Amino acid sequence: MSRPMRRKSLLIGINYTGSQHALRGCLQDVQNVAEFLSYRGYSNDPRSQVILRDDRSGPYYPTGHNILAAMDWLVSEPGTTCFLHYSGHGGQVRDPDGDRSSGFDSTIVPVDYETRGQIDSDTLHRHIVSALAPQSTLFVVFDCCHSGSAIELPFVYRSDADGNVNLMDNVKQGMHLVGAATHLIQGGFNVNKVGEAKQLIAGATSFFRGLTHSSGRQEAGLNPEEFEEDWVSERKMVTMFSGCRDDQTSADASISGANVGAMSWAFLEVMKRQPNPTYLATLQMTRQILGESKYQQVPQLSVGVQFDLNSPLII
């Protein structure tokens, strides 16, 4: 009889308390997600769950060093189901490799970003995707701005404003998830990539200085990212729900008097309404709930390996 997979979780919440860029809902997000994971059977034993918050100290204070060390811990054991949640600022820094058409990499923003910098998407990928131990899986929820490609997974699933989705890789012929090249889950729409949207440059010391690039809407559907050639051969079972596209900001929300991140709240609301949804339904319902609450951000699902998104969500 096979033994059940070990479960580990890492939750990171940063309100940037006392700074001019303070947020209000990130610590509450971590508490809410911890309660959800407990309900789903995750242990809160410190050997199985690590929580970094900026109201804690020592190794549990979310500096860049502590975040990467905790991520290394999370993905280090073979045969493990891993869960990662981040709620805090997201930004962008100049792409040092020159392989992004926008010229910028997505980042997450540690509490010490002004002195030690941010953590870019390439670094995140190497620490939590490339380093994921054999026979392990990783489920990620990122509730932050510019988070669509925050860990550089090779395929990104997008829907249009009505929830219609194209499950095809529209660039590489023969690479597909479900159905034929023109298959749409619901309805129909034309997919046209018209360029990069506004980007926010976020350097270590100039986090909120904006710079406008060429504007336009990103396409719907599932498309290979610009770093696909770097990462697609890894075939790691990693899935990520992110708060918005790379060109968007992610909102704080006030729900029943509590400050929370809009994406974190919407994701948990989906789990409450539909305890066993598919990956596809989770993305569609998350967008629907955000839209019902008048939030403009477009959540995304990124995948590290091709699989049937109509299969039940595994957390």
Describe the SSE topology.
Layout: E1 6-13, H1 26-39, E2 49-53, H2 64-74, E3 80-87, E4 90-94, E5 104-108, H3 113-116, E6 119-120, H4 121-130, E7 137-143, E8 155-158, E9 221-224, H5 228-231, E10 238-242, E11 252-255, E12 258-261, H6 262-273, H7 279-292, E13 300-303
Parallel strand pairs: 1-2, 1-3, 3-7, 7-10
Antiparallel strand pairs: 4-5, 5-6, 8-9, 8-13, 10-13, 11-12
Descriptive overview:
It is globular and about 45 Å long. Helix 6 crosses helix 7 (279-292). The chain contains 7 helices and 13 strands. It has helices at residues 26-39, 64-74, 113-116, 121-130, 228-231, 262-273, 279-292; strands at residues 6-13, 49-53, 80-87, 90-94, 104-108, 119-120, 137-143, 155-158, 221-224, 238-242, 252-255, 258-261, 300-303. By secondary structure, it is of the alpha/beta class.
Helix and strand composition category: alpha/beta
Mean pLDDT comes to 74
Succession of helices and strands: EHEHEEEHEHEEEHEEEHHE
- Give the overall form: globular
Low-pLDDT runs: 167-225, 245-257
Largest sheet: 8 strands, mixed
Number of strands: 13
Strand proportion, as a percent range, falls in 15-25%
Q: Could you estimate the helical fraction of the residues in percent?
A: 10-25%
From the structure above, extract its key features.
single chain; 7 helices; 13 strands
